[in-house]
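Input sequence (179 aa), recorded before submission:
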Amino acid sequence: MTWYHREWLNSEMRLKGTEECRALYFDLICLSQDQKPVGTLPDDPEQLAKLLAVDVARLRRLSEMEYGPLHHWQPCRCGDQIRLMHGRVTAMVLEALSRKHDNRARNEAANAAKRRQRLRSAVAGLHPELAQNDAAILWMDDWLVEQGCGYRGSTWVERALAAWSSHMFDVNRAARARE
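Predicted structure, token format:
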């Protein structure tokens, strides 16, 4: 969960809400992170009271305050349900998802680079000149991925070399046919 502590420290909710309302407000933000969809809450005081472990009458009374626990939480449609959402919480969730996707893409790119470097080293042991051909390494890596090859032992590397040779034979034959 991304938490903008400076924004929180200077927010009206923190400056004007009671200690109890601020604590419940923060708990609701945290609880919303485990809800579906993420960042939303049930639009039901009884469920919210159970989530917060407080009496429902007390939650209703506190929620009537201008800076109560549900300050700026508003109804929204989630499929066929009405739930509660908070604009700032939604922004936090979207940013966290964006960072998660960015991290995943960075990790996948780093893993692919390492995988190709290992392939290049394996090919160099069998065909040193071909190991210098970036296009060949990329093509063989893609071919191995398509084949579902998890462990790239020498047998798989040899199969990739054979597939590359067949591919280049077909490319050259097609080029000659066009001439």
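Checked by second reader. The CA atoms of residues 82 and 124 lie 61 Å apart.
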